[in-house]
Amino acid sequence: MNAFYLKFLLWIPPENNLNIYRLILVFALNYAAIHQIYTYINDKNVKRIGAYAALSLITCATELLLIFKLSPGEFPNSMDPERKKKFMIGVPIYLFLCVLFMLKIYRNPNEPGERGEGDSGSPPGSPALHSHRE
Q1: Burial zone of 41 (CB within 10 Å; 0-12 exposed, 13-18 middle, 19+ buried)
Q2: Tens digit of pLDDT for each residue in 35-59?
Q3: Do 45 and 17 belong to one domain?
Q4: Does 134 reside within a domain?
Q5: How many angstroms separate the CA atoms of 26 and 55, rounded?
Q6: Is residue 93 part of a domain?
Q7: Same-domain pairing of 91 and 109
Q8: pLDDT higher at 133 or 26
Q9: Angstrom distance (rounded) from CA 44 to CA 66
Q10: Domain tally for the chain?
Q11: Rounded CA Rg of the chain
């Protein structure tokens, strides 16, 4: 969503080729970044997140800072107090539940459906699960 709001703030017309090139570049970088994050989470031998993941995070943070810098005055009517109170209560609860869920998954890796000892992580029926037959 950052890409479209930033395009709106910088007054770039939708038919400009810069939009297409930027989305292709962001897709390519994020594809590699998601692979690196997945490998970091699932492979015990990997000790650091890769460079593409860090670059993707830095790009997102930079875009967010640009949005905060350029967006004052874009919305003259602020959010009503009732909705603001719901967001102030709901967002921390949501984040807390997400962190709690992630901690539950990584503390109990041998529960059914989770990856445990002896499981190669391959789908059933793949060659990685079968021994060599002669």
Answers
A1: exposed
A2: 988 888 888 888 888 888 888 888 8
A3: yes
A4: no
A5: 10
A6: yes
A7: yes
A8: 26
A9: 36
A10: 2
A11: 22
Would you say 91 and 75 are in contact if contact means Cβ atoms under 8 Å apart? no
pLDDT tops 60 at residue 26: yes
Tell me, yes or no, whether 65 and 20 share the same domain: yes
Distance CA 9, CA 66 (A): 9
List the domain range (segments joined by +) for residue 94: 79-113
Burial class (CB in 10 A: 0-12, 13-18, 19+), 14: exposed
Q: Are residues 54 and 73 in the same domain?
A: yes
Q: How many helices (H) and strands (E) does the chain have?
A: 4, 0
Q: What's the helix, strand, coil split of the chain in %, to 5? A: 65, 0, 35
Give the SS3 label for residue 15.
coil
pTM for this predicted structure:
0.53
